[in-house]
Amino acid sequence: MKYLHTMVRVKDLDASLDFYCAKLGLVELRRYDEPKGRFTNVFLAAPGDESAQVELTFNWDPEDYGGG
Fold first, then answer.
1. H or E stretch covering 44
2. What is the pLDDT of residues 10-45, one digit of tens each?
3. Three-state SS for 30?
4. 37, 57 in Cβ contact below 8 A?
């Protein structure tokens, strides 16, 4: 079994990037803005190892999350 990536929904993209990049040391690989769906995806990974990625999903319109 191979780990590909995990998605984390974030409410504050700048604060999340600060945490994952400045504090944990991950680097941004690519960013995808989708105006029709009104969201941004940012893919992060450890420097020199793109095999396991973290995908940050930021919805432009605020919505409460009621999940667990």
1. strand 39-46
2. 999 999 999 999 999 999 999 999 999 999 999 999
3. strand
4. no
Q: Which residue has the tokens 């995808």?
A: 32
What is the per-residue pLDDT for 68?
A: 58
**Number of folded domains that form the chain:** 1
User: For residue 68, is it within any domain?
Assistant: no
Q: Edge-to-edge strands of the sheet including 5-10?
A: 5-10, 49-59, 39-46, 27-34
β pairing state of 39-46 and 27-34: antiparallel
What is the value of pTM for the model shown?
Answer: 0.86
User: Is residue 65 domain-resident?
Assistant: no
